[in-house]
Amino acid sequence: MESTRKQLIDLLKEQDSHISGQQLSEALDISRTAVWKHMNELKKDGYEIEAIQRKGYKIVSSPDKVSKNTLQWGLNTKWIGQHLYHYPQVESTQDIVHQLAKEGKPHGTVVIADEQVKGKGRMAREWHSPEGKGVWMSILLRPDLPPVQAPQLTLLTATVLANVMDKRSALVPSIKWPNDILVHHKKVAGILTEMQAEQDRIQYVVLGIGINVNQEDGEIPSMIAHKASSLKMESGEKWDIQEFVQSILSTFEKTYDSFIEEGFQEIKQEWERYGYKIGEKVTISTMRRDFKATLLGIEADGALLAKDEQGEMEKLYSAEIHWGEGGYHA
Ligand code: BTN
Fold first, then answer.
1. Domain spans in the chain, listed from the N-terminal domain onward
2. Where does biotin bind (predicted)?
């Protein structure tokens, strides 16, 4: 039932014009009455469908609100999001995924909320997650990897987000080390990776993705408005959150599968292609010294590689970087 509905949506979305009930019934191998029933179900989930006699059906608009059904029907993935939970309001999607992980839910389980009232950022910061304005989502991963490779998953996720934003808009996203996504020097997305591990094996990873999507001017908290923004504010267009999430999940699945098969090299190149200020000079403060250096790229362990003015290389794991623009530090 569900996969027929997925195919039906795909067929309708592929067409710019109407598609007849007969064509749909042949393509899906179901009766015309069944086609008609599916159409009614789609309408109930918020799809606006035009039905014209002798011409057929056409999707006029997809639902504005995200739901488990509408997210899954348009999702062309093998493992990610096959178990998906959608909530109107939660404290934090991270906590729910930790709970689901403990209950044994599988690799690729996704939790997404319209609103978080206790959204968590990195370094115990708060993550503002207002209703219907962004992607507030956590993914459960059960990779067969040693814990030292966990940072690669965060870097991988940053490349996925940058790639999808790049493909879906004229915006030029960049990734600010370790894993903020910036547009026009302002942060539009962040990633929070939490891990449960034994000494040599990851038990599970909860990968939290927060993206400011449709906030308007004045809707970003004033404390961070100088350094944070939304995709709508930067592109001038409203984004379809549902299609955006589907595209993130399917790109994530492909990227993750090829990372597991082929290793980190391609992710590293992709990260560096989007890397903020890679090849440029910044000022860095570490425990030992303050110095000017050119950022060169990242290492397989997630470190940022920089070369100082004397030509000495530094691998940075935690450092204060004075990025110049946007006015904030790593
Ligand atoms: C950062 O500090 O940049 C990371 C922000 C991560 C926010 C996301 S929103 C979904 C998930 N649930 C949370 O509470 N946090 C992450």
1. 2-61, 68-274, 281-322
2. 116, 187
Select 2-61's CATH number: 1.10.10.10, 3.20.20.370, 3.40.50.720, 3.90.226.10.
1.10.10.10
Homologous superfamily of 68-274: Bira Bifunctional Protein; Domain 2 (3.30.930.10)
Which residues face 49 on adjacent strands? 59
- 119 C-alpha to ligand 1 centroid (Å): 6
Which string of DSSP letters, residue by residue, matches 147-210?
Answer: GGGHHHHHHHHHHHHHHHHHHHSS---EEETTTEEEETTEEEEEEEEEEEE-SS-EEEEEEEEE
315 is annotated as contributing to ligand binding: no
Nearest Cα residue to 46 out of 17, 24, 25, 67: 67
Atom of ligand 1 nearest to the CA of 137: 10
In the sheet that holds 313-316, the strands lie side by side as 313-316, 304-308, 290-298, 281-285, 320-322
Nearest atom in ligand 1 to the alpha carbon of residue 92 is 14
Both tokens assigned to 157? 């996720």
The contacts of residue 182 (CB under 8 Å, 6+ apart) are: 173, 174, 175, 176, 188, 276, 326
Å from CA of 305 to ligand 1 middle: 26
Structure tokens that stand for 313 in this block: 């290389």
Tell me how far apart the alpha carbons of residues 282 and 291 are, in angstroms, rounded to a whole number: 9
Q: pLDDT 10s digit of each residue in the chain, 330 long?
A: 457 888 888 888 887 889 999 999 999 999 999 999 999 988 888 888 999 988 999 988 877 778 898 898 879 899 999 999 999 999 999 999 999 999 999 999 999 999 999 999 999 999 999 999 999 999 999 999 999 999 999 999 999 999 999 999 999 999 999 889 999 999 999 999 999 999 899 999 999 999 999 999 999 999 999 999 999 999 999 999 999 999 999 999 999 999 999 999 999 999 999 999 999 999 999 888 899 999 999 999 889 999 999 999 999 988 789 987 544 444
